[in-house]
């Protein structure tokens, strides 16, 4: 019991060193408890789109677990650094390494018990709050209740028991390698002046430039999805390399500028930071990466959540859209009968007969070639659909005329062809570029360039397709001419609309087959309901990750400043003894802390600016093409995070000042 009492006494007497560590671990326990209870909740499995939701939250759970491991190792290293002198004193007074290991073990057990108990209680409170947020964000009405499974607590206890054992083993290993003198010196061990590592600097520039290049130049949303994580890894590597090599070069350059260096606050800041830049650089790079993760995660998920209406209008301009290969006469009669029975009023019914979309290789804004083989990239691809003048007149209500060799072109997405259009060697004169076509939608929009070409009659279309079938091979010949598109809106109360749309979609799919049979039915109301759950779930994860990474950023900055404050305490005491005033000390501290704060945030904003193009392409895959909304959301997130960042700066500067000022 001697070691147990001594361990508890140490925890009480070392509150300044131990309290931040315990708060950090308590925070990690609470976050993991909350995510675990959300993922394993029975109501999640009963949600519409439960598979996607569970997959999304499970991925988030693994991200949090991995982050918890890294953050625990980071905070533990600072704690051990501050306590080395204490352990060295115990060693000199007669406690051997074995006895110190016993003491560490009991301290770890006491810390684990305190953290698990309070962390799980806090996690339960946060879980209750998170369920309320989920219900709000995902627009859930029922079937999603707050449930607690005792086995989930067993998993959390086991996870952090293993984590605390790992930290205990690492601490013992470090103490085993150090002699009493090294332990007594502890955190006062100085750093040698680092030399500029030009290889690392060049590597950082190359990898960071490569990541930026991928983000800025990529245009295909599919390629953006594949290369996004490659760009992220390159930017992370480049950030660490440039912070560790470039910061040293910058400080040495400032040191050579005599007019800047030989000023009180500049001299102290530059001279102190240049000797500890290895540790500073890694910490600053971590702050920068975490800040970037907060900005990207929250801005992206918030854009999806607040852009639900834009996504809905973009993908579903009508309430019901049906595509089929057969005449829709019988289908429409069936729909009218069911709508009357359900008390739903149909309106704005439109029909359009088109060819199947045909994949072209787009050479320019006017030159297209039929794609005769699978394309490696979709950035030069275009989907072109054909219809005749009679169908266009029926759909639009307009009465244009076309002579032989003339066409109308509706550019859904992509560059608009001017005057003429060349379709695999057959050139046509563009009589008019259509700016809109109510009721027409295409599933390829946003993925590739999409065009609808209106020709004088079906005979022209058929002859053109026959020529292409003969030269493009058997795979191309699978495209058929008849593709019936039916769309309409209907009027009814919201609940009645959703019930009617879901019932109609299920019955028509069972009757006419699915996508493989060339039949598809899409409901605006059903998509809206499912979209709320998906985008709401993403937004919840974005808030969860944002809060987690923000707190982690604040804790890293706090640890960094407190650790450096303890190191600088004696140095500032000497400076004050030789005549440095309180105001000068305060000015130096604020300048140094501001340098530490401002640089990572500015670089994080630069990262976000370069990431904007690739994230914009990724959002297109979700149906969000309103980049102005994404830009506005990003600016708001940056401003809010900057204010929070400044608040952390003020607290950190105050704590640092209280340590180093006599």
Description:
By secondary structure, the chain is an alpha+beta fold. The chain is 68% helix and 11% strand. It is built from 20 helices and 11 strands. The protein has helices spanning 2-13, 15-39, 42-45, 50-92, 97-137, 150-177, 180-185, 198-217, 221-256, 258-261, 264-275, 277-306, 308-315, 329-342, 389-396, 458-472, 494-512, 524-577, 582-621, 627-660, and strands spanning 320-324, 345-354, 358-362, 367-370, 381-388, 406-413, 420-423, 426-434, 449-455, 483-491, 520-523. The strands form 2 sheets. It has a 7-stranded mixed beta barrel. Strands 2-10-1-11 form a 4-stranded antiparallel beta sheet. Helix 8 packs antiparallel against helix 9 (221-256), helix 9 (221-256) packs antiparallel against helix 19 and helix 18 packs antiparallel against helix 19 (582-621). The two termini are 39 Å apart. Mean pLDDT is 75; it is low at 474-479.
């Amino acid at each position: 019991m001697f070691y147990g009492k001594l361990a508890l006494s140490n925890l009480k007497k070392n509150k300044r060193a131990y309290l931040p560590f315990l708060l950090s671990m308590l925070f990690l326990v609470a976050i993991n408890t909350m995510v675990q209870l959300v993922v394993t909740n029975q109501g999640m499995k009963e949600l519409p789109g439960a598979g996607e939701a569970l997959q999304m939250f499970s991925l988030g759970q693994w991200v949090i677990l991995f982050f918890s491991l890294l953050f625990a190792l980071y905070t533990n290293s600072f704690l051990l650094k501050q306590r080395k002198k204490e352990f060295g004193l115990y060693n000199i007074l007669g406690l051997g390494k074995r006895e110190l290991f016993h003491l560490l073990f009991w301290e770890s057990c006491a810390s684990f018990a305190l953290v698990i108990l309070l962390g799980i209680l806090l996690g339960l409170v946060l879980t209750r709050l998170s369920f309320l947020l989920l219900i709000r964000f995902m627009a859930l009405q029922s079937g999603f209740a707050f449930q607690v499974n005792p086995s989930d607590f067993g998993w959390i206890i086991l996870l952090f028991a293993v984590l605390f054992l790992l930290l205990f083993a690492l601490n013992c290993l470090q103490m085993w390698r150090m002699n009493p003198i090294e332990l007594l010196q502890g955190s006062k061990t100085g750093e040698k002046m680092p030399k500029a590592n030009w290889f690392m600097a060049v590597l950082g520039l190359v990898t960071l430039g490569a990541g930026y290049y991928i983000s800025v130049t990529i245009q295909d949303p599919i390629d953006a999805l594949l290369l996004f994580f490659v760009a992220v890894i390159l930017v992370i590597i480049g950030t660490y390399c440039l912070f560790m090599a470039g910061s040293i070069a910058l400080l040495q350059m400032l040191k050579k500028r005599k007019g800047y260096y030989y000023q009180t606050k500049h001299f102290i800041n530059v001279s102190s930071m240049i000797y500890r830049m290895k540790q500073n650089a890694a910490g600053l790079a971590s702050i920068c990466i975490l800040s970037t993760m907060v900005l990207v995660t929250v801005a992206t998920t918030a854009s999806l959540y607040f852009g639900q209406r834009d996504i809905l209008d973009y993908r579903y301009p009508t309430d019901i859209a049906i595509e089929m290969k057969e005449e829709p006469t019988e289908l429409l009669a069936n729909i009218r009968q069911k709508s009357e029975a359900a008390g739903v009023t149909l309106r704005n019914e439109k029909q359009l007969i088109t060819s199947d979309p045909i994949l072209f290789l787009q050479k320019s804004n006017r030159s297209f070639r039929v794609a005769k083989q699978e394309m490696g990239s979709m950035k030069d691809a275009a989907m072109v659909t054909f219809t005749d003048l009679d169908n266009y007149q029926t759909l639009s209500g307009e009465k244009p005329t076309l002579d032989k060799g003339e066409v109308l072109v509706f550019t859904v997405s992509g560059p608009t062809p001017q005057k003429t259009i060349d379709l695999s060697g057959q050139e046509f004169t563009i009589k008019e570029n259509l700016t809109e076509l109510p009721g027409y939608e295409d599933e390829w929009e946003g993925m590739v360039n999409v065009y609808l070409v209106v020709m004088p009659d079906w005979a022209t279309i058929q002859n053109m397709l026959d020529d292409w079938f003969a030269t493009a091979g058997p795979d191309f010949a699978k495209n058929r001419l008849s593709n019936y598109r039916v769309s309409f809106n209907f009027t009814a109360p919201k609940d009645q609309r959703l019930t009617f749309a879901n019932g109609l979609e299920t019955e028509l799919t069972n009757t006419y087959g699915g996508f493989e049979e060339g039949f598809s039915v899409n409901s605006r109301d059903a998509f809206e309901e499912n979209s709320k759950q998906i985008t709401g779930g993403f937004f919840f994860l974005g808030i969860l990750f944002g809060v987690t990474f923000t707190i982690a950023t604040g804790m890293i900055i706090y640890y960094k400043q407190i650790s450096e404050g303890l190191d600088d305490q004696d140095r500032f005491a000497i400076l004050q003894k030789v005549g440095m005033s309180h105001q000068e000390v305060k000015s130096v501290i604020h300048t140094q802390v501001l340098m530490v704060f401002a640089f990572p945030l500015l670089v994080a904003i630069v990262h976000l600016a370069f990431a904007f193009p690739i994230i914009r392409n990724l959002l297109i895959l979700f149906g969000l093409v309103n980049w102005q909304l994404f830009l506005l959301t990003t600016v708001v997130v940056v401003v809010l995070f900057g204010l929070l960042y400044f608040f952390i700066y003020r607290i950190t500067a105050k704590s640092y000042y209280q340590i180093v000022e006599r």
